[in-house]
Structure formats: C-alpha cells, structure tokens
Amino acid sequence: MIPPSFAQGRRSTYSGDVARLFISQGRLDAWSAEDRVRIQNDIMTLSGDGRAFRLRPAIRFLKVAGAGDAQDPHQLIGRVKLLDDLIRIGGERFMESVIVGEVAYDVQSGFLGEPLAPAGS
Q1: Is 118 exposed, middle or buried (0-12, 13-18, 19+ CB in 10 A)?
Q2: Category of 16 on φ-ψ map: left (φ > 0), alpha (ψ -120 to 50) or beta
Q3: Which residues contact 69 (CB under 8 A, 6 or more apart)?
Q4: Quick check: helix, strand or coil at residue 10?
Q5: Residue 6 confidence (pLDDT)
Q6: Where are the alpha helices (DSSP H) in 1-59?
Q7: How far apart are CA 110 and CA 47, in angstroms?
Q8: C-alpha separations of 57 from 5, 60, 61, 104 in Å
C-alpha cells in the first residue's frame, strides 16, 4: 500500500486535457514485479520513458452486485472514484464492494494516476 504523502515538490500537469489513468492493484503489482515501474512513496515512474504519476487510492465501479440487469441509480458503473470521494457520495466500502444508499456495487481496488511534470521543470 502506498503511504499518504505528497509528490515531493513536483507539480501536477493535470489540467483536464491530460489523461489520468486507473491502475488496478493487481496490474501495479505485476508491473512492479516485472520492473516496468518504480514506486517511491506515492509516485510511480515508468521505467521505459521516465514519466511519473502521483498515485491516489481509488476504486472502479464494475457492476451492481448480485444482479445481472440491475439498475444503476447512481450512474457509477464504469466510473473511478477516489477513496476520499466515497464519503461525499455516501458510500461504504467493504473489501471489493461498495454500498451507496441501498445499492451494492462490485468494485476493483487500485489507484488513480495523475501525470506529473518532469523533474526539474
């Protein structure tokens, strides 16, 4: 788990035009094991080109739990939310599930990667 900290003085380049990305915990573990990324505190750096991302704990909403054609009244399926945002939407997390109001969702744990400016810029 990545400890909460700041991006050590590197400013974010996120302006809404630059894509942020969701990285599942499993994918991050695999990339790390393959030496495709380096993780230091809350910064992930790609080994190939040196691009860096600030990682923030997040979840991706996959489907309404236990129901094939269940309605999604909160329109969360396919969306990624920071863990901090769950409180604002009234969500309660338990393992790989989140309950919002009366609706339970299956979710995927991971991180939201926000691009950072290159070091020294």
Answers
A1: exposed
A2: left
A3: none
A4: coil
A5: 33
A6: 25-33
A7: 20
A8: 12, 11, 14, 20
pLDDT at residue 119, rounded to an integer: 66
Both tokens of residue 108? Answer: 């995927």
Q: Are 40 and 30 in contact (CB under 8 A)?
A: no
12 membership: H or E segment, kind and range: none
| Residues 47/35, Cβ–Cβ less than 8 Å | yes
Structure tokens given for 70: 């269940």
The pair of three-digit structure tokens given for residue 49, joined into one six-digit string: 């080109």
pLDDT of residue 56: 96
Please, are residues 60 and 108 in contact by the beta-carbon 8 Å criterion?
yes
Note whether 79 and 52 are within 8 A (CB).
no
CA distance 15 to 11: 11
- Which segments in the chain show pLDDT lower than 50? 1-16
Tens of pLDDT along 8-33?
444 444 444 557 899 999 999 999 99
The residues pairing with 24 across neighbouring beta strands, listed in sequence order, are 110
Residue 84 tokens read as 């901090």
